[in-house]
Structure formats: structure tokens, C-alpha cells
Design a protein that fits this description.
Number of domains: 1
Helix content: 55-70%
Largest sheet: none
Strand content: under 5%
Distance between the termini: 38 Å
Number of helices: 4
Number of strands: 0
Radius of gyration: 17 Å
Order of helices and strands: HHHH
């Protein structure tokens, strides 16, 4: 479930909430805080996996309609 922040500027990008939640999860994880690894390293190790999948699904849902429309035009389909 996305977190909502009162004192932050509103980001109008489609997946901003998912991205913010993933970022917060990684920055607050023991991997980063206790082990001193970078968020990128922790992500590769599988930390915050459910939020990573949610963010990926969100990004894919934004891109998919565009790809479908362009593919149909290229293939000559209505």
C-alpha cells in the first residue's frame, strides 16, 4: 500500500508512489543501515522484492498501451 507524505511536493509521474515506497523500503532496510551496502546492491540481493515487482508492474502498465498501438500501426492493423 503506498505511503502518503504531507510535506512533499506532489509528483505527477504515473508510478511516483510506487517508486517512493521502494526507495523508502531500501533506505530503511537493515541491508543499507546495518550492512552499509548501497540500495542498488540490496535490490539485487532481493530486498523489498514485492515493492520492486509492484513498481515494475506499474511501469509496464504505462508502457504497454503505447507499444500495442505502435505495433498495430507498424503491422498495418487498425
Amino acid at each position: 500500500m503506498p505511503k502518503y507524505y504531507e510535506d512533499k511536493e506532489e509528483d505527477s509521474h504515473p508510478c511516483a508512489g510506487s517508486k517512493e515506497d521502494l526507495k523508502s523500503c531500501l533506505l530503511e532496510s537493515a541491508c543499507v543501515l546495518q550492512e552499509g551496502k548501497t540500495p542498488k546492491q540490496c535490490l539485487k540481493e532481493g530486498h523489498c522484492k514485492s515493492l520492486q515487482v509492484s513498481f515494475f508492474e506499474c511501469k509496464r502498465s504505462v508502457v504497454s498501451p503505447f507499444i500495442c498501438v505502435n505495433t498495430a500501426v507498424v503491422l498495418g492493423q487498425p
